[in-house]
Amino acid sequence: MTLWWIGDVLLIAVVLPVVVYLLKGVLDAARSIEPSVTRIAEAAGAGSKDLDAVPLLLTTQAHVKTTVEVVAGYGGSLDVIIDDAE
Amino acid sequence: MPAAGVVLIVAVVLIVLALVYYLLSTIGSLMRITTGLDDAIAAVTEIAEKSAPVEAVVKDINHNLDAGVDLLEGLLVKKAGLTDAVGLVDGLYPGAAAAGLRGYPESTEIDAPRIGEVYTKGTLTLARLGREAPIAAASPAGGEVLRDVERGSLAARLLYPSVRHERPQELPRSPVIGTDAPLQYEQRDDIGAPRKRPPTRQSNGEE
Question: Where in the sequence is the domain holding B93, given as residue range(s)?
């Protein structure tokens, strides 16, 4: 009977607090992850929205090509009308 | 049942209740984390899809810009010379001479003339044009005028309408007057004679 009481005491005084402590630690860790995941999702959503302007790069690409062609034309004309340095 | 058995059952029930509470809370938290990660993964996938063509487009833009830079650098060096080109670039963008011209690695070793501090861009342009700009003879880079005087002047004239610049000698000449004028006009009789007066009007209205 004495051993039974000792077991009860150990169960209530040791096992139960340890179990509660460990489970609370797991729960706190899981809850601490939630805000981080929320911020990651918001940042990813904002980044995806920022990339909505990517198709404009195609317009930029065409403009750059046209501009370089015009510059090449002017360069050719300048090459004709301006004498070389040497 | 002995009292010790009842206490044991109560302790076990308490442990089970603690397990149930914390595990259910953890499950709920993990489910919310899973939902958040799903949203994040969807957004990241969208980012990857949207940014997929960026590399090719940017490479093409850089390729075209490189060609333009090489063209302009080559033209500048060809027309102004490497030393003046470095000085001009350094004048427009102070400190750029240290980086040099991309297509001319030896340009980093050139001591750039201080063109930008003395001459404005317009004066430099005129200096490059030659005879029309006397300042060309005092180029900070020293040496001869950069432009062939005769050929450069004639080439510049081709840019303008030929009426005033290309063939000035064929313009109509100014008339020559005087006794030696090639074209003599007949003298009019009324010159020097009294001026004709208009008829006067009488007071009664009759002329």
Answer: 57-165
Same domain, B89 and B158: yes
Q: Which amino acid is at B160?
A: Y
> Which tokens sit at A20?
């509660």
| Domain coordinates in residue numbering, chain A | 1-53, 54-86
Within-domain flag for B153: yes
ipTM of the complex: 0.74
User: CB–CB of A85 and B81 under 8 A?
Assistant: yes
d(CA B109, CA B164): 47
Confidence (pTM): 0.52
B82 and B39 together in one domain: no
pLDDT digits (tens, 9 = 90+) for A43-80: 999 999 989 888 899 999 999 999 999 999 988 888 88
DSSP character for A11? I
Classify each residue of B70-100 as buried b or exposed e, where b means 16 or more C-beta atoms within 10 Å of its C-beta.
ebbbbbbbbbbbbbbbbbbbbbeeeeebeeb
pLDDT > 70? residue B82? yes
Q: According to the model, what pLDDT value does residue B121 have?
A: 55
Would you state the pLDDT for residue B130? Answer: 46
Is residue B96 included in any domain, yes or no? yes
Across the interface, of B11, B29, B36, the residue whose CB is closest to A8 is B11
Average pLDDT over residues B64-83: 89
**With an 8 Å Cβ cutoff, are B37 and A1 in contact?**
no
Q: Based on the fold, state whether residues B61 and B160 are members of the same structural domain.
A: yes
Identity of the residue in A8, A40, A83 whose CB atom sits nearest the CB atom of B151: A83
* Nearest-by-CA chain B residue for A5: B4
Is residue B110 domain-shared with residue B18, that is, in the same domain?
Answer: no
